[in-house]
Write a structure and sequence with these properties.
Blueprint lengths: L1 H10 L6 H37 L7 H47 L1
Length: 109
């Protein structure tokens, strides 16, 4: 879950300039491949929860049990955040381009 949380924070970061925007877009483009690599870890995690369930293990904290489903759904949640953020980044890109054009006009004047 920590890896997914780190990725989600980076995806949802508000870029301060066009370079950060480009870096975020590059990160988001590479993320689906990284999520595929983590599927093995998720499958192993689900197996462990399955074994615990077979032995009727009761978690002292309900949040521990909920982690299983958060891990299972984390890749889809990250993809959803990427899709949502792409629209925001396009608006930011337009804003940065307008800002650069204004700076260019101020510089040439």
């Amino acid at each position: 879950m920590e890896e997914f949380e780190k990725s989600n924070i980076e995806v949802e970061a508000v870029p301060k300039d066009i370079e950060e925007l480009s870096a975020t877009k590059g990160f988001m483009a590479a993320l689906p491949n990284e999520l595929e690599k983590q599927q093995v870890t998720i499958k192993n995690c689900m197996k462990i929860y399955g074994i615990l369930d077979e032995f009727h293990h009761h978690f002292a904290d309900e949040e521990e049990y909920d982690k299983m489903w958060r891990v299972f759904g984390a890749p889809q949640e990250t993809i959803h955040r990427i899709e949502k953020q792409q629209g925001f980044l396009e608006k930011e890109k337009e804003k940065f381009i307008k800002q650069m054009e204004m700076n260019k006009q101020d510089f040439t004047a």
